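Format notes (please read before filing issues)

Several people have asked whether sequences and structure tokens are stored in separate files. They are not. Every record keeps both together, in the order shown below: the sequence lines, then the token lines. Line labels are part of the format and must not be stripped during preprocessing.
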Amino acid sequence: MTLIKSISGIRGTIGGKVGDNLTPLDTVKFASAYGTWLKNSLATPSNEKLKVVVGRDARISGPMIHNLVVNTLIGLGIDVIDLGLSTTPTVEIAVPLEKANGGIILTASHNPKQWNALKLLNDKGEFLNAIEGEKILLIAAEERFDFSEVDHLGEITINDAYMDIHIDEVLNLPLVDVAAVKAAKFKVVVDGVNSSGGIIIPKLLELMGVEVVKLYCEPNGHFPHNPEPLKEHLTDISALVLKEQAHLGVVVDPDVDRLAFICEDGEMFGEEYTLVACADYVLRNTPGNTVSNMSSSRALRDITNQHNSTYQASAVGEVNVVELMKKNNAVIGGEGNGGIIYPESHYGRDSLVGVALFLTHLAKQKTTVSALRASYPEYYMSKNKIELTPQIDVDAILSAITNTYSTENILTIDGVKIDFAKEWVHLRKSNTEPIIRIYTEAGSQEAADLLAERFILEIKAIAGI
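Then the structure lines:
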């Protein structure tokens, strides 16, 4: 059982001992810390209550965690806009629309059903930065809470309209062409992994004139497969796409911020290529820059260059991608895990935006999903890790690697990334364990695997193991 405290929130497994898992007491403590941080950091008139938007995915522990968080905020004298069953991007767009001071999304994203988490947002509906996150962790550690007296408790406003509001916002984006999608008469299979994506994605598609075949779209929290949208977990939808002779399959994770597609032949489009395809469409119509994190595919850089625009890589983490996107005025960005960030909508990963842009692109190209995939540069990834003893200095190893390859194109903003002419390697250390994660990409799976093996051997040689 596990409890992970980070700058972006608190994540853990349900049940077990306090302090070791996401128990009710831990949930209340971290909700209290977030609410206290808001009260301490915002200069508001003494008679003006703060307001926080709260929404959850459909996992089994959701109602319990939801009630604990909402009532803790009320106890702090904070008003709550309760969205109930929702998605991460839905809560993100609701915060500024409600003129709220922050937001909490109750979801463990792609983690299995025994996990849950509190994802914390600022008043823009964006994830907190490192400094803000550290302050909340400090408040939680010191338990510096001051709850409100009975006449000053917060109030709950229930608003279950935001998934529909979110859909309308996506359909009204200038680059989303509903008429073109309707004319294409697509048939799409949707795997909602029995969470809120099973409600919101089919509804979006139906409003775009798409024939929808639902798979695992009952929001009961019983995930029928590992909810991370990777090839090995998606055999059922691949088979159903073929059986239904559908044009494609759409897969989301439980909180609907990661998006993967299945081609009409049942093969994966590739999670890394979700962003590539959406960026290709956006750049065809909106010249501008792109951003992804350092562990994402080089294909985005290639497509961006083809459109005579500039690509840059950020440190891993959504907040880092967003920060660089703002700095570079990027028109689209995201992460290679299927996360689309489209500033025209909002600065957060959003599968609804990704679906709408992708289907518009596909309709206008008048091609199949597999043919669209074949039109993009072909890259393959290998993801590995080395477990080291606690006595080994991981930073010294990464420094030695940097010195060895000093003549190459190197980025050191997040571990060490070495960009070779036809391939790259990204080495990152874990913040909690003596582990080095090794990500490689090349023009073939064999080449990516060989590059990873080469660096594993080099790291072991430096470490003397």
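For reference, the curators noted about this record: The chain has a mean pLDDT of 95. The first strand starts at residue 3 and ends at 6.
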